[in-house]
Specification:
Layout: H1 3-9, H2 11-25, H3 38-57, H4 60-67, H5 70-95, H6 102-112, H7 118-127, H8 132-146
Helix pairs in contact: 5-6, 5-8, 7-8
């Protein structure tokens, strides 16, 4: 596989790395109220565009078929809402005996208990050729379930 072919195949990851590098060099572009207006472009336009594009590319049969994969959905929801937060909690127990700042640990705990963002789950699944309909369902359903998630870890 040639370099150009590899770059075409990995365009999404390369784009992420490029955006991170540009943000590191010029962070003022993406701040609230800055030229990109992320409070508008990210919150409304980007997320809407991702779902609109995903909706256009999905066939009704694919969505219906994806809903029938109960074992897949059960696995994804248990992994996202139970296993991952538990693993993070255990990791934080280990880190709590180190001199790491307590607020950093609380931030990691909070992020570990949140569902993955819907838009990134859909984009990454589509980029690797996965089941996009199942990703959309699990992301949306997981975000809905997160509101009632019984296993929230509230303190270290």
């Amino acid at each position: 596989m040639g370099l150009l072919e590899r770059l075409r195949k990995e365009w999404f990851i390369l784009g992420i790395v490029l955006v991170i590098a540009v943000a590191r060099l010029e962070p003022a572009v993406g701040v609230k109220g800055g030229p990109l207006k992320p409070e508008i472009t990210i919150t409304y336009i980007a997320v809407s565009a991702i779902f609109f594009n995903s909706g256009l590319s999905l066939k009704t049969e694919e969505l219906t078929s994806a809903l029938m994969h109960v074992k897949l959905h059960l696995f994804v929801q248990i992994f996202t809402l139970v296993f991952f937060p538990t693993a993070i909690w255990l990791f934080l127990q280990l880190l709590s005996i180190t001199p790491i700042n307590e607020w950093l640990l609380k931030g990691l705990q909070t992020v570990g208990c949140m569902p993955p963002p819907v838009s990134s789950a859909v984009i990454l699944t589509k980029a690797v050729g996965g089941n996009e309909a199942a990703a959309i369902f699990n992301s949306a359903f997981g975000s809905f379930l997160w509101a009632w998630k019984p296993m929230r870890v509230s303190s270290l």
